[in-house]
Amino acid sequence: MENNPSVKLHNINALKFKPEKKYNLIVCFEMLEHLHEDLKLLKLINSWMKNDGFLLISVPHNEKLWNIRDEQAGHLRRYSKDEIKNKLKKANLKPTRILCYGFPFIRLFLGTYLKIEEKMQKKTGKEDKTNTSQTRPVLPRRMKKISAPILKHLFKFDNLFLNSDRGFGLVIMAKKITQ
């Protein structure tokens, strides 16, 4: 890798993107789950990578954890570790590391948070119907201000479970397979 690496940021329609050059590293967070043709995108990404290039992706994990936030965000699926590994393999990408984040405290917190939010929406009749990942919760600021410092320390405990299969999200590092 170069001594002075450069970074190019692209906010793209991925299936129509035509790169000017090949990349050492491509980062693709929270995107595949929105596409009907996720494998097609992985194959395209492979074609954009230099030999021995890397792909860093994140995707929602565990179909059993499907919730209203997935629908609001426009997700089409959540992935199992095996499913994402198989898709990467079909795209000539080899996972070198898979981390499963969000267990136990973040998962517990989000489940509780969603239930409280639902109750508040029913009580106030106020619902955010925005179909984006930028939906705004209706919980009071004071509640967030009090809970944030406590949760910050609890969430650090989740790092002990990054190699488990219990979290709600996956972060995967994959390497381009060269023939």
Can you characterise this structure?
The chain has one domain: Vaccinia Virus protein VP39 (Rossmann fold), CATH 3.40.50. A 4-stranded mixed sheet has the order 1-2-4-3. 36% of the residues lie in helices and 20% in strands. It has 179 residues and is α+β, with helices and mostly antiparallel strands. About 3% of the residues have low confidence. This is Methyltransferase domain-containing protein. InterPro entries: SAM-dependent_MTases_sf (IPR029063).
What would a concise description of this structure say?
By secondary structure, the protein is of the alpha+beta class. It has one domain (21-176): Rossmann fold.
Low-pLDDT sequence parts: 130-135
Strand order of the largest sheet: 1-2-4-3
CATH class: Alpha Beta
Gyration radius (Cα, Å) is 19 Å
Shape: elongated
Looking at this structure, what is the CATH superfamily?
Vaccinia Virus protein VP39
Helix content: 25-40%
Rounded mean pLDDT is 83
Count helical runs: 5
CATH topology: Rossmann fold
Elements, N to C (H/E): EHEHHEHHE
Main sheet: strands, sense, barrel:
4 strands, mixed
Distance between the termini: 21 Å
Give the tally of structural domains: 1
Note the beta-strand portion.
15-25%
Provide the structure class: alpha+beta
Compute the number of strand runs: 4
CATH architecture grouping = 3-Layer(aba) Sandwich
